[in-house]
């Protein structure tokens, strides 16, 4: 005679709560071997207990109850393996999304702390730089940052997709030197190691750059300081870049850029 176990016994043997066992029975996932018509008590046999353990494994693997029912009622082992493979592929995609979220959170955390003291002291220094391959987005004519984003709507999506890459702005030289103001000609995102120039790609040339780190959108003191420096040295910029160094997500005007001017 087959031995039967009360719902309390099954709870102790499987660790599943009594309410979960009743829910599984109501959902036809694992039904008790017998229900006493007079008392309504539910009794399970050993096969039911093994099925309940399998349900527990599948739940830990991320299957919903509906999916668990499909897996357990599969017509063949081949069908069951196919269902498991599909779940594994979905889990891998979820893991990729979670890794992307974690990477974004780590980057946000690294950007949020207050920058070190002395970053915005208008200190001018020189730096030798190698060539850099970038994807460049340019405008028909130089403009302010709001007009630039309005003209290049795809830029926002590019920034979100490649948030960890080097990025910045190409600044217009005449406005910088003569108008003493900031005008944007284009923006760029790092393209990796240098290779031959292709469509929409540019090479930021190697050479000696005059640099300063400052919040370029907060005020224009840095423009006056650098333009005065070039006037005193009787030099003309060949290219003016503003490379993002510290993103302030709560006040974009406070984001720090390293202004890099090729001479």
TrEMBL record:
Record flagged with keyword DNA-binding: yes
SUPFAM superfamilies: Putative DNA-binding domain
Listed GO MF terms: DNA binding; DNA-binding transcription factor activity
Stretches of the chain forming a coiled coil according to its record: 81-108
Residue ranges constituting the HTH merR-type domain according to the UniProt record: 4-74
Keywords recorded for this protein, A-Z: Coiled coil, DNA-binding, Repressor, Transcription, Transcription regulation
Highest taxon above the source species: Bacteria
InterPro entries xref list: DNA-bd_dom_put_sf, MerR-type_HTH_dom, MerR_fam
Protein name per the record: Predicted transcriptional regulators
Organism: Coprococcus catus GD/7
Lineage, top ranks: Bacteria, Bacillati, Bacillota, Clostridia, Lachnospirales
